[in-house]
Amino acid sequence: xxxxxxxxxxxxxxxxxxxxxxxxxxxxxxxxxxxxxxxxxxxxxxxxxxxxxxxxxxxxxxxxxxxxxxxxxxxxxxxxxxxxxxxxxxxxxxxxxxxxxxxxxxxxxxxxxxxxxxxxxxxxxxxxxxxxxxxxxxxxxxxxxxxxxxxxxxxxxxxxxxxxxxxxxxxxxxxxxxxxxxxxxxxxxxxxxxxxxxxxxxxxxxxxxxxxxxxxxxxxxxxxxxxxxxxxxxxxxxxxxxxxxxxxxxxxxxxxxxxxxxxxxxxxxxxxxxxxxxxxxxxxxxxxxxxxxxxxxxxxxxxxxxxxxxxxxxxxxxxxxxxxxxxxxxxxxxxxxxxxxxxxxxxxxxxxxxxxxxxxxxxxxxxxxxxxxxxxxxxxxxxxxxxxxxxxxxxxxxxxxxxxxxxxxxxxxxxxxxxxxxxxxxxxxxxxxxxxxxxxxxxxxxxxxxxxxxxxxxxxxxxxxxxxxxxxxxxxxxxxxxxxxxxxxxxxxxxxxxxxxxxxxxxxxxxxxxxxxxxxxxxxxxxxxxxxxxxxxxxxxxxxxxxxxxxxxxxxxxxxxxxxxxxxxxxxxxxxxxxxxxxxxxxxxxxxxxxxxxxxxxxxxxxxxxxxxxxxxxxxxxxxxxxxxxxxxxxxxxxxxx
Length: 642
Prior knowledge:
The protein is built from 19 helices and 26 strands. By secondary structure, it is an alpha+beta fold. It has 4 domains: about 10-220, Histidine kinase-like ATPase, C-terminal domain (Heat Shock Protein 90); about 225-385, Ribosomal Protein S5, domain 2, CATH 3.30.230; about 405-530, Rossmann fold (3-Layer(aba) Sandwich), CATH 3.40.50; about 535-575. β2 and β3 (about 70-75) form a beta hairpin. α2 (about 35-55) packs parallel to α5 (about 185-195) and α3 (about 90-95) packs across α4 (about 120-125). The longest helix has about 35 residues, at about 365-400. The relative contact order is 0.08.
């Protein structure tokens, strides 16, 4: 770490006082839901990361406590505690009580910062019932506590220490937030990003709500973004060793790591000052442009062109690519308040020039790697052309039909997609019951038979025209792959309904893999659901002449129901459903399709890296990775049929 420099109250500049944060929290943290709750943690962690970027911190500990409070501790320089000359109070109190006060407006304190507005600490304080800050500095422990943003006493020395750094503890205000229980996996996802992007830093996340032992994860990657792309491509066979580029031009630092594998999907993530630019921006455009140009140049140089493929486009050269782009610049210009798209116009040319130069050097040194990548891209181009021909053939066929919808689809009468839902049902038998039991106004049924194609192991030309997937594509009506348009979906809910056994689980996984790889916006937008049919039907007498029925979805629920019944156990009849086809239309409606009583699971994407990795490992070509995953996780399986 860098030696300590003169970081004191003179570095803290005041732009305006703290106001309206509690009245309009959405202006500062985006929402008062779970995302806003997590945002509080990110703001404090980002302050510690800024210390790491400046060279003064290499260890951060994030803790979630039993009462859903948080703490973040780092070993940086410690927030300044001396008197701020304008307000005549400690700089620590200024940082936590004054909006837009901090060291990020002073380029001598932080040349690169993840924060854009400098409001983090004060907003976290304002939106918490209580907040406590301990600063370890100059051999002393400085301490201040706050109640809903207001200091209870001045900053005071409360002890001696050999440590240095800052520890912030806070309890989010239940009057502000609609949800106060943080999601461990979501936080771990963001902290993993930060650990990958900042080589050598160690971030530990601890969840003390987990008993008897707290859940703990240490995130430390000496390989930095090279380790990141290796993680992203796990489960696939790499075509070469990861390519790493690192260049500094003035205050601009660019790091890129990339690797091609035998996968058919593209996994590229871009970051600016550790912020995930989900919508890309000028740095991503520059990278893609240079990649396409360089590979086309080497295709000619290595004499690999074909009559059918004389030039590769961007989609061709990105098949099987895993890449991470990490840019650090002093003054990023983000489009919109969400900070998800970089707008600095000069960055495109800078990134394009660097990538073109560095890739050219690499390919000249390792021409076999260039050849392997280009040959894969050529095959991708040929497959895309075949897929285009298949699409055109499908369109011509549908144009001749009176209705271009699957023959087995029982559509609903409602035309507003927001009010419609489609059940993709395993088997004709269950499909028949579902068609009879449904509400025809807004529920459509599409029966499927047999195992469908594993899209993780095939290109798009094999997907289009597949007899199992074509009905799904046609029914949803929004296209697939690069052509998918979420605005054109015919149903607001796409519900997968399969048997609660191993085969049903496989069908669900195959469909989810297809949706994730070829209709990803459908997953991101929260349109995909899993139906949960019951495992048990429990019939019991309530009078000598009358019987009632209860359904149980788990073994535990079944046991609880049986324990609560006050009748002769010998008169209780338990049926274990082997499949959906065993239910008559009324039972299927009551248990699995009636919005008032059904149990469906909404598919979300809390950790995209883990999701991408799981699909690659479980459904990809690397048998060894899959075997390792199964052996590692077999201990957590309680019932293989569920």
